[in-house]
Amino acid sequence: MTKNPRSKPATMHDVARHAGVSVKTVSNVINDWPYVTPETRQKVWDAIQAVQYRPNLTARSLVTGKTHTVGVIVPDLSNPFFGSAIRGCEDELLESQYSLLLCNANEDAERERYYLNLLVSRAVDAVITWGSRLTQAELSLIVGDQIPLLTIDASEPPTAANHLNVDIDNIAGARLATQHLIEQGYRRIAHFAGPEGRVTAKHRLAGYRQALEMTGQPYDPALVASQTPTIQGGYVLAQAFMRQDRRPDAIFCYNDLMAIGVLLACRQFGWQVPGEVGLVGFDDLPMATLMDPPLTTVRIAQYPLGRLTGRLVLDAIKNASRPQQSVPYLVELQVRGSSGKGLLTENGRRAMVESLMASLGEDRLGQPAPAATVDPRQTPDSAG
Question: What is the distance between the terminal CA atoms of the chain, rounded to a whole angstrom?
């Protein structure tokens, strides 16, 4: 068996010797300094591949002031919504040779604070946080003003120059969902709300109330209850509400997971959806189409939203001036069988599945995931 003649990791001196250039030129190429000719740049990268050199990213970050990492905090990693959205964000970042550090706040403000401090201490180039429970003052205190901060559905409008926010139109989506149920003839409409203190939950409750007011329906606080935004949360609330003497004839849920929990409870206790109970969710998870009956829901295009967050944060990293601090993101109602349209025929169900597969393709914007090739500029230091 032939032993590898190289007993130590390759160095910049090895690259320089192989490429026939100075060590300084190798350093300039690795750190993306200008004034290096394309021919020399290519020669250096060919040499890096040939000798299998892996740059020390820690040392490089000290020179460039960049780590090429973005920290992302989500409120609940078990929610499939974030899987699709984070995949979109990661794909966008990877195309620009940035990596993603993912943290799960677990619906806990203290845990979110911990991860924000951790990410800043790791010198990430930007921070993205979804559904933050923290105030503007808290975010600014932790993140400071030196790196971009991108929030999705922030609790307060951005005020700091380095803070951008993507504003999902939750109020309009909730209003559309509730109006739809009213148009279908439902009158005693409950709202299974999300976590108290989350701005998304507040906005969806506001949209629900707006729809009632616009159509002359009374608002009854007894028809609103908050739970964890999970299948179990929806199931528990459905059990409690549907055992009441005056039970609701329709339910608008904070998200699809809660709506699926309602469907399970209805199936267990023999309540017909949509015959006895109309039901609408929010998010349009892929599984919503596969429910029986298929779930009417408010669609947030998750993968494109994730890519949008990646583009915005990359632009913020590269450009110091960011005049637009709030970016709207629209939603749309997807009417299916759970809200009064009746059960689908076999042909209708087949068409629904085909529509689902087409939408999943659209979420990827017709583009494959970035190639899994190794770029020596972004690989960990093999020297340890």
Answer: 27
- pLDDT, residue 36, reads 84
Domain extent for 19 = 11-41
Cis link prior to 157 (omega < 30° from 0)? no
Do the domain assignments include residue 154?
Answer: yes
Based on the domain organization, do 209 and 264 belong to the same domain? Answer: yes
Specify the number of domains making up the chain: 3
Per-chain mean pLDDT for the chain: 84
Q: How far is CA 341 from CA 47, 122, 279, 382, in A?
A: 65, 52, 11, 60
Region of 244 please: left (phi>0), alpha (psi -120 to 50) or beta: beta
Can you read off the two tokens belonging to residue 66? 């960049």
Q: Whole-angstrom Cα distance, residue 71 to residue 129? A: 8
Q: Are residues 109 and 199 in the same domain?
A: no
Do 234 and 251 lie in one domain? The reply is: yes
Residue 347 has pLDDT above 80, yes or no: no
Residue 104: CATH number of its domain: 3.40.50.2300
Burial status of residue 321 (CB atoms within 10 A of its CB: 0-12, 13-18, 19 or more)? exposed
- List, in order, residues 6 or more apart from 357 with CB less than 8 Å away: none
Q: Assess if residue 47 is contained within a domain.
A: no
Give CA angle at 362 (356, 366), nearest 5°: 135
pLDDT for residue 34? 72
